[in-house]
Amino acid sequence: MLIHEIFAHVLGDIVFFVFLFILAFAWFQRKRRNLVRFFGLKRQERLVVYLSSLNVRHGSIEDRLGDPSDDYTISVPSREFQVIPELTRLFATSWQDLAPAILGGGDWHTKSVSLDFRPSPHKGKVRGPMLIVGGPRYNAVSDYYFEHHQPSFVLKKCDDGRWVVRKVRGALGTVEPTNDDSELGILVRTFDEHHTSVIIAAGITEIGTIAAVRFLVTRWHELQNRFGDKEFGICVRCASADVDPAGYLSPNEFDSYGLPRDERTFTRQADSSS
Questions:
Q1: Of 47-51, 103-107, 179-183, which range is least confident?
Q2: Neighbour count for residue 109 (Cβ, 10 Å)
Q3: What share of the chain is helix, strand, coil (3-state, %, to 5)?
Q4: By C-alpha distance, which of 183, 186, 239, 242 is closest to 212?
Q5: Are 97 and 43 in contact (CB under 8 A)?
Q6: How many domains does the chain have?
Q7: What is the rounded distance in angstroms from the CA atom of residue 143 to the CA atom of residue 134?
Q8: What are the tens digits of pLDDT across the range 203-230?
């Protein structure tokens, strides 16, 4: 009798942990599918990340021996390298991607996404699902999409040389920080002429850009819940480097544009019934 009770307890524990594993696996799979959907990707599709680029002219840099370079090339601002590990961790392959293969394979699970980090090309018209990091001053791709596709927030250069955030949808106008101790960045989703998703994370300075990427990495699921698969725009604010060198790690939403999910669903249902 005692053996049967022990066996029943052990079997019950096994069933319980298997049930928990299935629930956790389903939750992780759903989260990964939502992440892929948020970036407008298909299964096993590559996401190109265009970083800002700086022109390196003939003789303007030296090698480690002090000799000037004869090359004309482009380089990526050092601060933007900080976004590479952040984004890589977001899309990193985890146990939920490997579990189906371990359990016998099958093509029903969400496959991992590969990231392709590139410096911004000289011409900004490129295609495919992409994430653009950096504003139009150093990124020709964001300059192209700001100019030709008019997302809800853009970065504009004023006549006096200052760069500002402009809201071009909803309540129009210039978005101003509440004080001089903060940095502004924008995170927008727009679409090209083929309705391919284009996400731009940019700031007036590099700190604002990194803060926008940080907001994307940590809050994408909230944005997916709020806006679904449609266009949106978020202006983020963080402390300046002079006030807090790590302020970009804690950006806050300062302004936004986009229809809420329930309003968009209601509109779609109304359109389909008319």
A1: 103-107
A2: 18
A3: 40, 25, 35
A4: 186
A5: no
A6: 1
A7: 9
A8: 999 999 999 999 999 999 999 999 988 8
Which pLDDT band holds residue 111 (cuts at 50, 70, 90)?
low
DSSP class of 249: G
Helix (H, G, I), strand (E, B) or coil at 232: strand
Q: Which amino acid is at 232?
A: F
What are the angstrom distances between the C-alpha of 271 and each of 200, 264, 265, 266, 274?
A: 30, 11, 10, 9, 5
Query: What residues make up the domain containing 46?
Result: 2-273
Which residue matches tokens 């002090």?
A: 66
**Cβ atoms 241, 225 nearer than 8 A:** no
Burial 79-105 (b: 16+ CB within 10 A, else e): ebeebbeebeebbeeeebbeebeeeee
Whether 36 contacts 43, CB under 8 Å: yes
Main-chain dihedrals φ then ψ at residue 106, nearest 5 degrees: 110, 155
Strand-pair category, 232-239 with 252-257: antiparallel
Nearest to 195, CA basis, from 104, 120, 129, 136: 129
| Radius of gyration of the chain measured on its C-alpha atoms | 23
Token digits of residue 195: 């309705």
**Is residue 31 predicted with pLDDT exceeding 90?**
no
- Report the half-sphere exposure of 99 (CA within 13 A, side-chain side): 14
Between helices 83-90 and 206-227, what is the axis angle to 10°? 20
Gap between the Cα atoms of 187 and 184, Å rounded: 10
- Give the pLDDT of residue 101: 45
Three-class SS of 63-97: CCCCCECCCCEEECCHHHHHHHHHHHHHCCCCHHH
Burial label, 11 (beta-carbon count in 10 A; 0-12, 13-18, 19+): exposed
